[in-house]
Amino acid sequence: MNLRGVGVSPGIGHGPSYVLTVSVPEPPEGATYTGEAEQEKERAMAALTQVAGELEARGNQAGGEAEEILKAQALMAEDPGLVVKVRSLIDRGLAAPRAVFEAFTKYRTVLRGSGGYLGERAGDLGDIRDRVIALLTGQAMPGLPVAPAEPYVLVARDLAPADTALLSRDDVVAFVTEEGGPTSHTAIMARSMGVPAVVACPGATRIPPGVQVMVDGTSGDVRVEPAESDVADAVGAATARQAALASWTGPGATADGHPVPLLANVGGPAELDAAVAAGAEGIGLYRTEFLFLDRPEPPSAEEQERAYRAALEAFPGGKVVVRTLDGGADKPLAFLPSAAEPNPALGERGLRRFARFPEVMDVQLRAVAAAGGAAVMAPMVATAEEAAWFARECHDKGLDEVGVMIEIPSAALRAGNLLTMVDFVSIGTNDLSQYTFAADRQLGAVSAMHDPWQPALLDLVAITAGAAARAGKPCGICGEAAADPALACVLAGLGVSSLSMAPSALAAVRAGLAAHTMEQCLAAAEAARTGSSAADAKAAARAQLPGLDRLGL
Ligand SMILES: C=C(OP(=O)(O)O)C(=O)O
Ligand SMILES: [Mg+2]
Asked: Domains along the chain?
């Protein structure tokens, strides 16, 4: 079986498939058992104990905050009150799966009412319940595997931030999802982990569990049960290409020495080492919301200060741009709850949400200032008034390098107005394409719209970069578009002053830029904008960039 999707994180990954199941159907109401009550109770107890043991083992392996959460879950699975309830429901004739289902439902209500830490974790009960029921009914286990025997290819319909918070590079060799586009959470996370990934891959969830799968994150090919020799060939070619790229070192620049600083996108302290190792010259986008997913309370000022200080210390003398919390839409944050919104991506997202939670913005800006004053920028800014409000708030806290993201067409079209309020802009091409093409970035069906070569997107970049040049202020790119080596040359030609991307993309972009002069980049930018489709734009630009083929890019 061969499948094809959109390659979003380059490289070859292969291993047995693990197909993520998100829910287990409710056991039928009133279901009974045949046989002895004692046996049925033993079956239920054994399943509860096994799930508790697996959660505990996963906690020990994960360490840190995840350990606390998983151990609390393990305790809940064996809570004496819950156990008594399951046993009594079985005594009343209910089959073990149904007894577990009803006991957990009751237990959740009790736990919610008790408040405190356990009350906050009542939502986890659904996951534990489904695991126990899956065991009892012989269904595929929902959620991620606990202590996997070998690294696996994770296959899913889509992955939410909460699904992936506990994933480790050591366990996952590749991702394949049926949904998602090149700028979806799965794609961003795969790139930040340096794991090959293919998204928008129809039929992915029909891959049988446990079969060998090879994923080519460059071409988008997914091969089920490939010949061993094909795997060896593909891995060999990818390794040789990576080694060739690694020979290009130093700061980002074109062949004729025009500097284009290459920065890293990070989502937390754990990603700083990879950014330094990949030769990033600083951080162009610190996605701070990823520090605080799955938390009921806003992070304290001290905790934030530590995280931002670590980034500044990782890049002494380098640029560090902290983005204020981008809650909402694809990045839901429990401590910044939204009103019920029919279209969350068009609602109170990013900076807009701070209007309702000014104290959260206040704490965050003070923490950045206390950490030593990184540059700071706001997401989801539409107007010059919003930019002015944000700049005032930052200046009040003593922050003097303030920028805004350009990710809404109104902001790109009027970048000149916004730039009178702030010191720099950074173009977020992921959302800029979402809002330009009215295409949800999470949706596989519209992923073609998110091709960063779309000429309309390039026009908006050109308008923004032109406004920044006239204002004499920097204009960076921190969307996923910067990670494509050919497009990076085009963006430099359009006048963008720095490029920020997942650390895993830096080597290829550095090599691509270094193989061309600024004149070639300018010619590629002009050629791309003559295209009337993304494919035309790409072909026209690449024709001006002969060094790419030589590098295998
Ligand atoms: C960089 C961006 O921000 P995020 O992907 O975090 O929304 C973007 O929208 O391009
Ligand atoms: Mg964005």
From this structure: 2-21+144-242 (3.50.30.10), 37-137 (1.10.274.10), 255-551 (3.20.20.60)
